[in-house]
Amino acid sequence: MENPYKPYPVIIDDIIVETDDKNLRTFHLKFLNSEDERKFNYMPGQFAEISVAGQGEVPIGIASSPTEKGFLKFTINKVGKVTTYLHNMKPGEIIGVRGPLGNSYPWDKLEGSNVVIIGGGFAFTTLRSSIVYMLHPENRPKYGDITVVYGARNPGLLLYKEELFAWERRDDLTLHITVDATDDPEWKYNVGFVPAITKEKAPSSENAYAIVCGPPIMIKFTLPVLSDLGFPPDRIITSLEMRMKCGIGMCGRCNIGTEYVCKDGPVFTFEQLSKLPNEY
Amino acid sequence: MKGLLISRNDLNSWIKSLAEKYKTFAPVRTESYDQFSMITSPEEINWAYRNTRLSPKALFHPHSEKMFQFSLDPRDPSKNILKEAPKDFSPRVIVGIRPCDAYALKLVDLNFDTSQYKDPWWTKRREITTLIGLACTSPGLTCFCKAVGTGPFDTRGVDILLVPLEDAFLLEIITEKGQILVEKYNPGGQEPPPEVLNNVEKLKSQAESAISSFGNLELLSENSVSDFFDAPLWNEVQFGCINCGTCTFLCPTCWCFDIQDEVYRDKGCRLRLWDSCMFPLFTLHGSGHNPRAQKVQRVRQRFMHKLKYFVDKYRQGVACVGCGRCVEFCPVNIDIRDIIRRMISLSECAV
Description:
- The complex is a heterodimer.
- By secondary structure, chain A is α/β, with parallel strands linked by helices.
- Chain A contains 8 helices and 15 strands.
- Chain B is globular, with a radius of gyration of 22 Å.
């Protein structure tokens, strides 16, 4: 068995500034050794530890989809020591990736169902991975209607804008882009908080699962909306954040009740969460 | 049971021959307390010790351990690439470990040695180490091993168990690893006569009877997490706690750790360091959010993890072996025995 603490070396291939405030950058990473890439088998919803020698590691959701070959994509918010250092790095530099870690969204259960994706702010990364995965021609027939509600505080803070606008024009996916507020007179999408837009668009809960990722305040107000639409707690899926170090259920800090968020999660249904202490 | 009656002298010469071949650790008196140290001669061992102040967990999970090393030198082609730090994994023997501490290693195995992931350093050190336990004939005032399912003569964690008799030892071979050690290095001795075995049984029941039971620990798994989680008990328990972390530092079943990078000039290493759920930084998010920001949450986490979450997750009983270190050294006299009793009585009320 390989040492699960040892990162695979990767090279930064590209860095894209995602948001107007420049606090979010997307890193395209390429494996230095092709056998490492083969070992890195992941599904949307999983995360990895990004390792910077001398700085440390950060757990980040994988934003690329396993259907996209040859690179990994991580969208990283500038928050602390490691992420600030990463934001100052340049393409061509070597860092490490350790993973894939955690569980994924329940893809076997989602098969044959309609999927409603609700995202807010920069929690859209693994949701992007999920959308790209489902839209892949090989996978698209496995899922019913795909509805996406994605919001940010203002247009400048939306991630993956070009892709969003391209998805918006597709007929095999219903996308509702929204912002909390904007002074842009040209803005042709929705204005309003994610829970309100979800309520207004009222995606059907029939044979459907909802995946909800966003800030706690968004989740708090979206849950009753989904409940009113008829989604039971075992069909509402979310991904938790916790401080992590090892990522493999050993260092203890992401423990909630019987679960380690890094290994048993980060994906849980609200049914599962209702049985855990409210410590997240 | 396969046993040998062995004189003190024979045992000493056996340990001497082991110490020549293996790295050998044993309880050694230092200043005012005992601690596991590497020995070269059996004379260094304090056979009369009750238990070491620090648990022997550090022999498997060091307080600070280099995981990887790397270069930051721009001229180095392997700059920024982590490489495994060299480690000495030559075979070792630990002599005189108490049955409670040895069983604690088995409980920590559940965390570090799983079907999905194996901690390479913990599992390797477990593999290369043979444990020669020392039965406890006079448990201390803070000992409660029997009450949490281990015992002063518990053989489940050791490869060999030594029972101290007046001027000799009974050497019991428990595992194949223990058998190999005895076959390779003959300790001498003889088959124990029945009166010796009777005497051992008597010592065992005497030691066990010194420890009183808390009641039925099974009740801990019968109640739901929320029954315990929301109990008013935690508010009372946390009142005196100063979050010093002494309990987690001394506990043989506390394994939580931190990972940190250290750099000096153009060389660096990634370290693993003991950490504690008693500290607010343990769970502090980069965003500033902290799911266990309050002391009461952290105190509850420590006890709930040992006495409820662990029980429910692994179905192997509580993550406490009753060594009593936290009871003895807590500066504000928080007593885990009292908490176990209160949790059991909560369950009794609920049932």
